[in-house]
Amino acid sequence: MMTSVDTELIRVLADPLRLQIVTLLSRETLCTTHLVEETGARQTNLSNHLRVLREAGVVETEPCGRFTYYKLRPDVIAALAGQFAELAESARTAADNKRACP
At CB < 8 A and 24+ separation, what contacts does 6-10 make? Predict the structure, then answer.
């Protein structure tokens, strides 16, 4: 069976700052102010990256007074990890398959 990896999600997570945000959110739910402090990124830049992550379904928001908290959606990360696990298993089982050259 051919495994398909979510290339759009990989593109979203390939950005170093977005990957840093995801790593931070894997440890705790944070607001934009916390993420600015942790990453050193400008607030507007960070907000743009959070929008991309939100639109891709990687994070979700939780309003809390005048702040918006962000939390990671572990199911999305687990699904991507599962796709890579299937790809690795396919490579293991096909390791001895070699197509003959014409």
Answer: 6/79, 6/80, 6/83, 8/56, 9/56, 9/58, 9/76, 9/80, 10/80
Answer yes or no: are the C-beta atoms of 80 and 6 closer than 8 Å.
Answer: yes
Phi first, then psi: give them for residue 10, nearest 5 degrees.
-65, -40
The pLDDT mean for the chain works out to 92
Neighbours of 54 (CB within 10 A): 14
Query: 87 vs 26, 27, 28, 96, CA distance in Å?
Result: 24, 27, 30, 15
Please report which residue ranges of 15-93 form alpha helices under DSSP H. 16-25, 32-39, 43-55, 74-93
Amino acid at 15: D
- Which stretch of 7-11, 55-59, 73-77 has the lowest confidence by average pLDDT? 7-11
Question: In whole angstroms, what is the distance from residue 86 CA to residue 67 CA?
Answer: 39
